[in-house]
Amino acid sequence: MPAAVPRFAGLPLSRQRAKSRMSLFLPCGSSRINLVPARVRSGLTILTRLQNRIRRENRPVPLDTERYLARYSSVSDSSRYPVWYQAVLCSVQVGTELYIELGIQRGKDQSRTPSAGALLSHLSHPKRYNPFVSKSKEREGMGDELQSPGELVSELRESFRSGKTRSYKWRATQLKGILRMIVEKETEITDALYVDLSKPKFESFIHEISLAKHACELALKELEHWMKPEKVSSILTAFPSSSKIVSEPLGVVLIISAWNFPFLLGIDPVIGAIAAGNAIVLKPSEISPATSSLFARILPSYVDSSCIKIVEGSIPETTRLLEQKWDKILYTGNATVARIILAAAAKHLTPVVLELGGKCPVVVDSDIDLKAAARRIVVGKWGTNNGQACIAPDYIITTKSFSPKLVDALKITLEKFYGKEPMKSEDLSRVVNSNHFSRLTRLLADEKVSGKVIHGGERDEKQLKIAPTLLLDIPDDSLMMQEEIFGPLLPIITVDNLEESFDLINSKPKPLAAYLFTTSKKLKEKFLNSVSAGGMLINDTAIHFTNTNLPFGGVGESGMGSYHGKFSFDAFTHKKGVLHRSFFGEISARYPPYTPKKQKFLKAVLNGDITDLVLSVFGWLKS
């Protein structure tokens, strides 16, 4: 182990406890692994010993462990990397699952460590583990006190009912705190994204950090305007009166974010929920553990943690959260989990926003700037987390006659962007984990696509990498055409006439996005009118996501509801209609006893017929 690797300081226990020779244990099938001996010098040593133990017993080695070791064992600049490592959960399948991962803390401040007492309790006594820890009680020196999900929600509801989240000052203060966090913690955010996905720094900044920063700046700039009641016209029967629409915060909301853009998809809806004046629980994805741990560690330092809380965990923790009554749930992920969330929400009649995915088609006409189109398709597919994006192109449709030119252009562009050996490119993210790698391998191994690969196809299971891969004319009943690919594979389907593509697209569930490359106004109009999708983009891919003036959301199986910019504010508010009347202008005709004369008068009023109104007043209106 290089001397430059920081010494393992362990969990933030008291000195007396740390000096004891206590060892922490986790169950692992029928055996127990000595996970944290009292005098272990380094977090890397822990992982190395565990890895060797697993190998000796012929158990599968978690790839994440090797990834962490590879990343941190060669650190030469100790000032730039974590001062200590915290043992937390990552998967190894051994009868029951043992989880280990590295939670990363930078700097010397250990006072903000998330749920340290709960983690220690889990390591020593797994049955006692409860991840729902009150941050407000931690600051009072009660870091080991645990909360049930019900207590967590009750605490948030109490904070919301106090009224403090409704004020402009509170909302603006929280948004400024998040903006400061994004600026001050940019390096930590970038590193966490690299650990989770090997995401290039360029993509981390462009696709996550800058968009989150822009969302926060926009909310701060427009907040006062968004909060103002919207005046609307009143009706004659209520004259004199005034009417307005008040944007009222919903209450306590739950945000369950995804792993593929783990920072942006976590913080962006939080920004909208704060701007709307809600109390919030953010549940980051356990599949991106470094970013999840980062959220739990740094966010409470920048916002009011009595109103904004982080809950880490996986299926059990999410299930327990969904048992609670929420005022709104926003979920980003897949349709399978969305159905579970929707069913749980239905028990409490909780409204939901579901941001899902689907097979996003790209229709390519022949009358285009081919070079520009190829670049935009490639960057939209492989330049957005290596195809692991809900709006990444999923398949291309073009004509048989034009396909050779398009294929050549895509190959040339791929080589220009990622080199002749894309597996060595540092500009491509890796596949997130072994489960998703196996899923993508299964799609490629389908006998129905045998011999259809025309570019790429290389795989490295150890590094979790798959080269950008093009396939030509795979059958529609292949696995690859029956499910969302969500990875670096891109099939190209050819048709005789481009209008046939509309039938193919409409035969599948409605996608989150649909793309068309053409200069034909007629084809564009037909595409817009014939294809239903969450969003559409003409002559480019994916960048509509960055336009906060457009709602971002799905339709059908790609989701329901939308957010981004003002739409995020609207997603977390109730539009309350308010009519204010004076005591002047009383109309007796609306009250019993009802008479034909009163009915004639009110009919004239409701119809807006001034002549009949005058005639009815004088009793001259005939029925």
From TrEMBL:
- A Pfam family that this protein carries is Aldedh
Record keywords: Ubl conjugation included? no
Any single biological process term in GO: aldehyde metabolic process
* Domain of life the protein comes from: Eukaryota
Record-annotated membrane-spanning stretches: none
Query: What's its EC?
Result: 1.2.1.3
A GO molecular function annotation here is:
aldehyde dehydrogenase (NAD+) activity
The UniProt catalytic activity note for this protein reads: an aldehyde + NAD(+) + H2O = a carboxylate + NADH + 2 H(+)
Q: Listed GO cellular component terms?
A: cytoplasm
Sorted keywords for this record are: NAD, Oxidoreductase
- Aldehyde dehydrogenase domain location: 157-576
Q: What is stated as this protein's family in its record?
A: Belongs to the aldehyde dehydrogenase family.
Q: Which PANTHER family match?
A: ALDEHYDE DEHYDROGENASE, ALDEHYDE DEHYDROGENASE TYPE III, ISOFORM Q
The protein, known as? aldehyde dehydrogenase (NAD(+))
